[in-house]
Amino acid sequence: MSVNVEFSRQVFRYRDASGLTQEQMAELCGISIKYYQRLEMGQVNPGLSIVVHIAKVLNIDLDALKSKDTFVDQTCRRVRERDR
């Protein structure tokens, strides 16, 4: 699986978990909805500034966009913190 596809899947997972729409994400990241949709489909390689914006909007570390395990770990951590 390509890095771009894995990145796109991670962005989708976090966005979906956050309850944001693609339109909201695009607006919060300062990019067009068309570009954002292509990003989630793995059709574009976003620049570092866009990746940083995505992480900030989703309130996650940049590393969280790299692997499935990190997504699971951070989700579990958030649930534990919420339930305290």
From TrEMBL:
MF terms in GO: DNA binding
UniProt keyword annotations, A-Z: DNA-binding
Gene3D superfamilies linked to this entry: lambda repressor-like DNA-binding domains
Cited SMART domains: HTH_XRE
PROSITE patterns the UniProt entry points to: HTH_CROC1 (PS50943)
SUPFAM superfamilies the UniProt entry points to: lambda repressor-like DNA-binding domains
Signal peptide: none
UniProt superkingdom: Bacteria
Pfam families attached to this UniProt entry: HTH_3
Organism annotation: Neobittarella massiliensis (ex Bilen et al. 2018)
Family annotation (PANTHER family): DNA-BIDING PHAGE PROTEIN, TRACRIPTIONAL REGULATORY PROTEIN-RELATED-RELATED
Matches recorded under InterPro entries: Cro/C1-type_HTH (IPR001387), Lambda_DNA-bd_dom_sf (IPR010982)
The protein's name in its UniProt record: Helix-turn-helix transcriptional regulator
HTH cro/C1-type domain segment(s): 13-65
